[in-house]
Amino acid sequence: MNGALTRYRVIAWIVGVMLLLLTLVAMPMKYFADDNTGVTVIAPIHGWLYVVYLGFAADLARRAQWGVKRMLVVALAGTIPFFSFVAERLVVGWVKGTDAQPELNKA
Amino acid sequence: MRLVTASRSVTLAAVRRLLTPGWLAGHALVLASVAAFLALGWWQAGRAAEGNTLSWAYTFEWPLFAVFVIVMWVREMRLTLRGARADEPAPAVEPRERPVITRRVSPATAATDDADDPQLAAYNEYLAWLNEHPEARPGDYPAKELR
Fold first, then answer.
1. What is the residue range of B128's domain?
2. Which of chain A's residues have a Cβ under 8 Å away from the Cβ of B65?
């Protein structure tokens, strides 16, 4: 569970940063400066990283036994700038909250 | 024969559970998004064929998203039928009575067959001595002639 959570968190940050680069740097470059290089480079990378993001999210959903609604929130959050960071915090809360192991050392 | 009828009625009940208005809306949404994703993939395939290199990635990604939606939906149906979702309460299932497990405890019978095995006899003697001298440590066990 912890490994799946870490994998998801790492890819959520990477996808989030790539999406910001795409929307805040590459898109203005294309539409204001008429320079396609940023989009040409970042868009395909972001596209495939998003596929990886979905894969890791699905793996986590399987382990944590989430229903489809949570999965939908997480999947859509990865497509909206800034929202994957919010989703990452949300997911950590879900996993730590519902799947926390009892503390054995608690007296 | 009885088993077959039982499993068939379970399946029918299961199917009925997935035909409520909420579920039907979900099925429709899934079908619509799958159709839309496939159409988008087809559109990107056309653009890729026209020479838009960027579209090649999307040509494969959109169908992949369609597959993802189907996989997630099937998983949702199976989880619901099993009632094993963490984020939503499981459907009410009549609690089954827990079987009472009893184990027969047979008394130790070691003492009876000491005679065949001098080593076992010595060991049982040693254990008996330890039992009689609770304060003693194994090293305190005296030689046979001193006992």
1. 112-142
2. 54
